[in-house]
Amino acid sequence: MFQRTKICSGLLLAFGGTLLSVAPGAFAQDTTVQRVEITGSSIKRVDAETSVPVTVITADELKKAGVTSVEQAIQQVSAVQVQQTSAQAVGAGTGGGSYADIRGLGYNKTLVLLNGRRIANSAFTASAPDLNTIPFAAVERVEVLRDGASALYGTDAIAGVINFITRKDYRGGTITLGVDAPQHPGGAQHEAQIGFGAGDLDKDGLNIYGFVGFQQQQSVAAGQRHFAPHAVTSSTTFPATVFYGQAGGGAGKGIGYTPFAGPAGCTDPTLVVSSDIRCGEDTATFVDYIPASQRLSGLLSSSFKINSNNTFKLEAFVAHSLVKAKIAPVPYAPVFIDPSSPYYPGAGITPLPAGAVLDPDQVDAAPGSLFSRAGDGTLNEGRMVTRFRDLVNGYREDDNSTNQGRFMASLEGTVGDWDYDVAVTLNTTHTQDLLVHGYSDEDLLATADLNPNSATYGYYVLNPAINPFGAQSAAGAAVLHNAVKEGIVQFGDGTVKDVDGHASRDLGDWLHAGRPAAIAIGGEYRDEKFLNRANTEYAAQVEASTGIDPNTYNAGKRQVYAGYAELNVPILKTLDVTAAVRYDHYSDFGSTTNPKFGFRFQPAKAILLRGSYSTGFRAPSLYELNAAQAYTNSDSGVSDPVNCGKNAAGQPVALNGFNLNDVCSYLAKTFPAPNDKDTNAIQFIDKTGGNTHLQAEKSKNATFGLVLEPINNLTTEFDFYDILITKEVGVLPDSYLYSPAGYAAFPGNFHYTAGGSLSQNPQSCPNCGYVDALNQNIGSVRTNGVDVAIGYKANAGALGRFNFELQSTWVHSYKYQLFQGGGYTQNVGIYSQGNGEPVFRWQHNATIDWNLDPFSLGLAIHHKSSYVDFTPTRNVSAYTTEDLYGTYAMSKGFSFTVGVKNLSDRNPPYTNYTGKFQQGYDPRYTDPTGRTYYARGTYSF
User: Fold this and answer.
1) pLDDT at residue 61, rounded to an integer
2) Does residue 754 lie within any of the structural domains?
3) CB contact burial 349-383 (16+ within 10 A = b; e otherwise)
4) Average pLDDT over residues 895-924
5) What angle is formed at CA 410 by the lines to CA 409 and CA 412, rounded to 5 degrees?
6) What positions does the domain TonB-dependent receptor plug occupy (predicted)?
7) pLDDT tens digits for 535-548?
8) What's the mean per-residue pLDDT of the chain?
9) Residues 25, 6 contacting (CB under 8 angstroms)
């Protein structure tokens, strides 16, 4: 599958990736004279010199293997450690985007290009383009540069570059229809692609072509797969769980009870037994493992020959992506049920456990507690704490839609000895989050208690018509249904205007090495804007069921100027060296200059050495710089580093005259009365959001490669890489920031009140005591490893032709800091709490193909190694799947492909990671679909 161009004895460029992907016969000569440009360089070269420093995957190979989208295509590259897929749109508020991540360094450090030029970043994150919006039907091949390339492309290219190359000068027509049919329920796919083209550019002086592609993906619901135990449950249930106190109970006391439960009463399919009298809601049963989606894209290109040396081109592509994400019904917790409700537990309709005794002080106005001791002086209405989930209105569903477009006019050709290419480009993107099912306005279901003397002051009291424990009356159903609200809750827009150009030429054989030196120069101007905001009026109505701040407003803009140069000089017949440098100026944070040096040495026909060293950078995204700042609750369980200390016995003590429970968090009773709380989990106030003082992330990249052809048709590659990133943009974790060490390192982040305290109520801000938790330049990351590629071709004559290819990545080390000056944490083969993901020690994709015209067969094997789980008491098993496919190429332009994905029907390995709405497996690395049969038919004319 992984086709690679030839390494020849002519000039090969070491700069711009230098990790050359090599196919069998790589050292043979090629004598054609067409000059082309390769990913990773601005110098045009003849075909005899075009061994590109990238992994190349063709669209034909992808289609044979059943790949139907750009998202799936990137999963074929072993250097891609992790990928945010459409499945992760479930409950994430990311607009349904899909992003690639080379080396596991973050998708904002992988540059994505279309025909060598940028496209607009996602309007929700402003950090990387959404892969779903790339017109897969028009893609001819994908080139993946596995090395830093800031010296040519500028920002975001720290980890590498993924360049999607579309067809050129296409003539004729093509129609493709395809279907994927999983063996298990759900997950079916249908696709259609149509292409056309007319005109011979060389003969007619004109060529026009276009491609349109459509794909529809059915959802895979959690209930359609049974490999993942749903061990994570919620105490917010239906029937609702109520908490009642007992006379004389201490603060924080309360007994959870689900009416009608009993020892075997959790009979609803979405409930699980938590205790003899209490159920838990299995929220994962409502979630789609794979969301339903639709993608429609089109590309139209026209080229006009001005004269024999110059061509004018107009190109436009538009794409629409829709991802439908489902999650569990809205939880309302805590909400209080009033004694006036006919459904009040113990009042006749809703039972209480035998012998239950209600606390006369059922609730408490004290901060952080819903239960009290008698005699606190507050007005007690006898209301009970209830945790109610709205199953009447059912699951929540978002329609995340993105519309992307690019419009480009370019001029390319030759003037004298110079090859040139200049273009003007407009990129636009619009994303919106449309709530279509199950979201409600809490103000229409419950009433806020605004009596400051009430024990439930500031909390919501449930409408007495609603039965949180069972079937609804007509009045209760009407209240619930009338509260449903549908609409656009948030949207985003992004625009990138770009003017760029570069030119290259030969300079002559300076050192009599048998090949000319070559130079390229180029420049770029870019104007970027983005806006992400909530639909304020509507968002305020559904805030309780979405968690989206109705005042969200993130906007930013900037201008970028850049200039670069590249020089390649053959020193000897066997040695070339390359140097390049790029200068970038950003209107919002300053300037940066990044060089790159590379070499290529071929001492013998069957041996090639190559290497490079470069620096790189990533400019802070417009979102990281300009996200709206807000005052929010910190993580629970932190302590005031100034006013909370420890005594000689290691027990928490209050300092400076403060009350212990106002400044110290603790998890168990470690001291005697009168401090009668068993636990105390404090949340202070963090100030979060963008930071206009961010600096660029910096990187140093080094590579060294060895290519061998020990026998004819067998090529082996070993490419070593080492990457150091400093000044990573991120947020200091509260667990560190509120520690004594965090305070000592960042005292300027703490803003105490005049009385020397930190506040706990965000509503008192900005005149409050708070802690800066804004985006900032924090720690460093260092990773190294080796990419291995093996290719072997054999011609068995009448038995056909065989081809074996292995593409593999082995990570030796991946260490990161949470903050500057802190210790490094190893992430290889280990799920990292700080990094939020594992780094796989070993990944590979291997293919074996047999071809005997008009038949071909292929087998692909994909492997990810095991790792220590989220809870480090167990390992997540290795994940290996196999795909089998075959093609029959009939005469008159018709071909038919059938195949089986996940031939062994392997389930994703179990993990106790709970960071996504899907439970029991990790959707970032695995596919829950199971064995899938597919068929593709193509007619070309």
Assistant:
1) 84
2) yes
3) ebebbeeeeebebbbbbeebbbbbbeeeebebbbb
4) 87
5) 165
6) 49-161
7) 999 999 998 888 88
8) 84
9) yes
Pairing between strand 685-688 and 770-772?
parallel
The gap from C-alpha 782 to its chain's centroid, in whole angstroms, comes to 21
CA atoms within 13 A on the CB side of 544: 24
Q: Cα(565)–Cα(686) distance, rounded to whole angstroms?
A: 45
CB of 671 closer than 8 Å to CB of 751: no
Can you tell me the mean pLDDT for 206-229?
90
The torsion angles phi and psi of 63, rounded to 5 degrees, stand at: -65, -35
Tell me if 397 sits within 8 A of 487, measured CB to CB.
Answer: no
- Looking at the structure of the chain, the number of domains it has is 1
Say if residues 308 and 355 touch (Cβ distance below 8 Å): no
Cis-peptide into 838, omega within 30 deg: no
Mean pLDDT, residues 845-852: 94
Tokens of 812: 């030796």
- Tell me the C-alpha distance between 525 and 400, whole Å: 32
CA nearest 13: which of 611, 787, 716, 583? 611
Amino acid type, 927: D
Q: Please tell me what DSSP assigns to residue 156.
A: T
Q: Provide the pLDDT for residue 380.
A: 55
Q: What is the pLDDT averaged over residues 692-715? A: 92
**Cis previous bond, 928, omega within 30:** no
Which contiguous run of DSSP H or E holds residue 212? Answer: strand 206-217
| Token pair of 186 as six digits | 């759900």
Domain range for 764 is 639-682+732-772
Residue 708 forms part of a structural domain = no
81 part of a folded domain: no
Q: Does residue 44 form part of some domain?
A: no
- Per-residue pLDDT of 754-798, as tens digits, reads 999 999 877 778 889 999 999 999 889 999 999 999 999 999 999
